Amino acid sequence: MAEFTMPSLGADMDEGTLVEWLVGPGDLVRRGDPVAVVETAKSTIEVECFDTGTMTKLLVEPGTTVPVGTPLALIGPAGERRPAPHAPEKGEPSEPVEPRTPPEPPSPPPEPAPVPASPAARPPGHVDAGPLVRHLAEQSDVDLGTLHGSGPGGRVTRTDVEHAAAARTGAGPPRARVTPLARRLAAELGVDPATVRGTGRQSAVHASDVRRAAPGPSAPAPPASAAPGPPSAARPAEDRAAAMRRAIAGLMSRANRDIPHYHLSTTVDMAAATDWLHEHNRRSPIGERLLPAALLLKAAALAAREVPELNGFWADDHFTAGEGVHLGVAVSLRGGGLVAPALRHADTLALPRLMNALKDLVTRARTGRLRGSEVSGATITVTDLGDQGVETVFGVIHPPQVALVGFGRVTDRPCAVDGLLGVRPVVTATLSADHRATDGAVGSRYLTAVARLLQKPEHL
Amino acid sequence: MNRTDALDMVRESISSVIPGADVAALAPDDAFREALDMDSLDFLSFVEVLSERSGIRIEDEDTPRLTTLSGSADFLVARTR
Question: Which residue ranges does the record assign to the Lipoyl-binding domain (chain A) (predicted)?
Answer without folding.
Answer: 1-76
